[in-house]
Amino acid sequence: DITSHPDTSSIAFDNQSNVAPCFTPDVEGDYAFRLIVNDGLLDSPVDTVIVGVDVNVTPVADAGSDRQSTIGQTVCFDGSGSYDPDSDSISYAWSLISTPVGSQSAINPSGCIVPDLCGDYVVQLIVSDDQHNSPPDTALVTVDGCNGGCEIRGDLDGDSDIDYDDYLIFRTSYGLCEGAASYIPCADLDGDGCVTINDYRIFKTLM
After folding, report:
1. Terminal CA-to-CA distance of the chain, rounded, Å?
2. How many Cα atoms within 13 Å fall on the side-chain side of residue 4?
3. What single-letter DSSP state applies at residue 120?
4. Residue 202 CA from chain centroid, whole number
5. Cα–Cα distance for residue pair 98/130, rounded to 1 Å
6. DSSP alpha helices (H): ranges in the chain?
7. For the segment 41-92, what is each residue's pLDDT rounded down to a tens digit?
8. pLDDT tens digits, one per residue of 104-147
9. Which residues, other chains included, contact 181 with Cβ-Cβ below 8 Å and sequence gap of 6+?
10. How many beta carbons lie within 10 A of that of residue 32, not counting itself?
11. pTM for the full model?
12. Element (DSSP H or E) covering residue 154
């Protein structure tokens, strides 16, 4: 039976003699239940359990689907699949929790990043209804096409066009050699293991 409940509750406990009775809380608070079993001769010691009921339900975060991208291309994630079961308003908190070694990329409050190196970028979304934070949800940006060479010489962002965006990428690797975190093999146009003035001259002829 129910031994205590919130003052404003009018809860009733059905099937008190059932092995697995159920109840439906009607207000927020703590509900205490007592169980005694009898074998026809003796009553058992009393066992009690307390059920805490929170009216507000935790919201659910949805960071969107995984994405493929290229260096320098803005990627914006869609958190519109997030929701609150109580239909409360929710706020969004995006973070970038994993990047390629040497990356300087960051995520803005709207959930957008600009990858600066090849590799995997993991973004995380947590939503809040001002009472509870959701469990985190993550999504992945994978950037390929610049480790080990380019399909088109000088096309550093892999969009099949050699333009100013490729030049900006070239600049990030200028002066670096194999083994450096930001070294981009595609920018090593003469194949000598370092991105030098000679590579710049070659790149200019390709634009």
Report:
1. 82
2. 8
3. E
4. 41
5. 27
6. 164-173, 197-206
7. 998 998 988 888 877 889 999 999 999 887 778 999 999 999 999 889 999 9
8. 899 999 999 998 777 789 999 999 998 899 999 999 998 865 44
9. 101, 102, 117
10. 13
11. 0.53
12. none
